[in-house]
Amino acid sequence: MALLEIKNLHAEVAGREILKGIDLTVEAGEVHAIMGPNGSGKSTLAQVLAGRELYVVTAGEVIYDGKDLLAMSPEDRARNGIFLAFQYPVEIPGVSNLYFLKAALNTIRKSRGEEELDAMDFLNLVREKMKLMEMDQTLLNRPVNAGFSGGEKKRNEIFQMAVLEPRLAVLDETDSGLDIDALKLVSAGVNTMRSPERAMIVVTHYQRLLNHIVPDFVHVLSEGRIVKSGGKELALELEESGYAGLGIEDQEEVARI
Amino acid sequence: MSETTNTIETFANQEYKWGFVTDIEADSIPRGLSEDVVRLISAKKNEPEWLLEWRLKAYRHWLTMKEPTWANVHYPKIDYQDIIYYSSPKAKKDGPKSLDDVDPELLKTYAKLGIPLQEQAILAGVAVDAVFDSVSVATTFKAKLNDMGIIFGSFSEAVREHPDLVRKYLGSVVPTSDNFFAALNSAVFSDGSFCYVPKGVRCPMELSTYFRINAKDTGQFERTLIVADEGAYVSYLEGCTAPMRDTNQLHAAVVELVALDNAQIKYSTVQNWYPGDKEGKGGIYNFVTKRGACRGVNSKISWTQVETGSAITWKYPSCILQGDNSVGEFYSVALTNNYQQADTGTKMIHIGKNTTSTIVSKGISAGHGQNTYRGGVKILKSATGARNYSQCDSMLLGDKCGAHTFPYLEVKNTSSQVEHEASTSKIGEDQIFYCRQRGISTEDAVSMIVHGFCKEVFRELPMEFAVEAQKLLGVSLEGSVG
């Protein structure tokens, strides 16, 4: 059984249809890249998988680990192993990164019937994962994403992913706003997370991220539909000919949420 | 956004968890206020002549005063002749000698409120002077405090046993004629707490009083006086919840603090009186005058308050910074939900040289709540080198509530420094979604975000109180986001 099965998924935001029939099957252990021009629906797909209520699913179904994903609340999805690395990580003033992450991890552990980690065990885990991301320790005690640089925010997302160890990670434009060094670092972090039990959906506009996180499959999204699927070579093809080479043009910008 | 609003509404619809009425026969006097009533109260308490005169002076002055209308709160006119000005639980004439003498019903009430009078008080190291309606019924740890020369007990007791101290300081910070509600309190106050910490003594435990309004339609007029003599230190905690009822209840307390040379007083409040129901019916009117005088050099007074209850709050814990180098602090979290209204803040009056004051105010509005910060910083000509820092932050939950800020600054000395910062924010749908995507429930997310917002104030609270305050905030917001 596939870890994730998306069938004929339609979704709209503010009455406007963005996803117009997505079909996608993701097996555990696979990395799928979703590419496409601006406005093609990439981020909408990521948000719908995470359960953002601003997006209304109008048709289709999503089966995750044998369950009806669309019937689950965002927190239930998270507790069942779905992680979204946000394109725009949100700031929470006054709440330390460490406290936030501990609350998240322990909520997830509790929902699985596992014991909550105490402060010491948690700190040890966090230190280990920080090394992986080469994160500055001081970021732990700073409020969640508040005053972080763009690069720090993105690294923080992958760091959280490393701590929460999801079964399905959805990375939404994780490369945007990163310089080449940060991109390498983030990619390296993501690559260490690849495992036969874990699947990833990497949403990106540019091919360059896929030089570092090499996908098993590449899908090209246009006007809310997957118009082409292939192996990693499809990304290279796109790099050369551009979306225009596939006869796809930038679509009208969807209002940023 | 509508999801968040719904969430907020669910939170706002949370019922008051601590509404119940204890069935105790109350010894009340007839409704209304007159010179006779003032005399009767004084007589019931076997007070000395000077105190009666003091009350009468206050009463006569009160008659000439008008209820203030400048606050940003709205409520039906109060009929001061329809209030019962004195009630006490019927007990043996001399009052209980120990906890064994205390009415078991009363103890049960405290237990329901989670007030650990007996064992837990000892475990927590808290001396509790419990005020039930108007009369103190139990005091713990007295002996230990006595050994150190610390006087801590009910106000009436202090009047009997330490009349000179009471007479010296009573009304010296908040004069009988200070304002309408303070004058009323001075005329009819029934009881309260008194604390005196002698020279050089550091009070080893947090002193704590739990107030509770119980008898139906009884105005509650507490009087608290705390004096820290030279080099003394005391931390005082005040916390309260009230039973649910229909009619509005007036509460007009007065708290006076006096800090002499090098003395320090820390006064912390967690207030959770019945706020009224979801439609704004009922609830306590809390019109309180709290003021501290930093009389000595290097003295310090800190007010920390977490206000989540009452239908209407009118309260401005203030500091008169008279001694050179004295320090005044005000840390406040005020939460208004449903139809609650709060007009609260502080006054810092700089008189002495190099006096400093810090104001950190956090207002949270949910439901139809209206939250007003009103602060005054006054730097007199004599206050060379004075400094003030004020920070007022407001957080809105939902789109039917309001936040208002009225800072007043009056600076008469050019060498002083005054800073003011203010911000208003909304809990965003994106913040809540971010938390939920990490597995955290909406309620926990709101509580976490609000707690983050209030952090600077909570860390000023004594440990055990900080935990309680955090819980209280959670409970008060439950259903206001959901």
Which helices and strands occur, and which strands form pairs?
The complex is a heterodimer of chains A (257) and B (482).
Chain A: E1 4-13, E2 16-26, E3 31-35, H1 42-50, E4 55-64, E5 67-68, H2 74-79, E6 82-85, E7 92-96, H3 97-111, H4 119-133, H5 138-141, E8 143-144, H6 150-164, E9 168-172, H7 180-192, E10 199-204, H8 208-212, E11 217-222, E12 225-230, H9 233-241
Parallel strand pairs in A: 3-10, 3-11, 6-9, 9-10
Antiparallel strand pairs in A: 1-2, 1-4, 4-5, 7-8, 11-12
Helix pairs in contact in A: 4-6, 6-7
Chain B: H1 2-12, E1 26-28, H2 35-44, H3 49-63, E2 87-89, H4 104-112, H5 119-124, E3 127-132, E4 135-139, H6 142-147, E5 151-154, H7 155-161, H8 163-169, H9 180-188, E6 191-197, E7 207-212, E8 222-228, E9 233-241, E10 249-251, E11 254-259, E12 264-272, E13 284-294, E14 300-307, E15 312-315, E16 318-321, E17 327-336, E18 341-350, E19 356-365, E20 370-379, E21 387-396, E22 402-411, E23 417-426, H10 429-437, H11 442-458, H12 463-477
Parallel strand pairs in B: 3-7, 6-8, 7-9, 8-11, 9-12, 10-13, 11-13, 12-14, 13-15, 13-16, 14-17, 15-18, 16-18, 17-19, 18-20, 19-21, 20-22, 21-23
Antiparallel strand pairs in B: 1-2, 3-4, 5-6
